[in-house]
């Protein structure tokens, strides 16, 4: 994805839709900041060129090779922060595993069959029970309101 020399002052919001990008060029743009969250989901990104004034997203430790040219910083080979030896490995709650989510970013995914907050609930979500209770409450409330408000309706 070549976005070089596009007069970008910030990362375009539409960039979030390009998570399948492998190579991204942001050079020759007057970018002032490069928030790490701009690259959330970019797990396939292997080469990123940014203006010299900016650092690689996630820092030097998020990339295997960072080279500096005259006006370009080239970040190559995105590292997996889940099994990094540079810092302590990312700690996920019990019943979950660490997964990369972009340069220097991680997410914790629940192991099967766990789900919910901090992967503490086991089994599947009780969709039938939830739908039944919600449907019953909606029908009951609708009938109650129809019965109590019917007398206020004007008759022709």
From TrEMBL:
Presence of the UniProt keyword Repeat in the record: no
GO biological process, any: positive regulation of osteoblast differentiation
UniProt-listed InterPro entries: ATRAID (IPR042350), EGF (IPR000742), LRR_dom_sf (IPR032675)
Biological source species: Sitta europaea (Eurasian nuthatch)
Annotated ranges, domain EGF-like: 108-119
Protein keywords: Membrane, Transmembrane, Transmembrane helix
Transmembrane segments: 125-146
Keyword RNA-binding: no
Protein name: ARAID factor
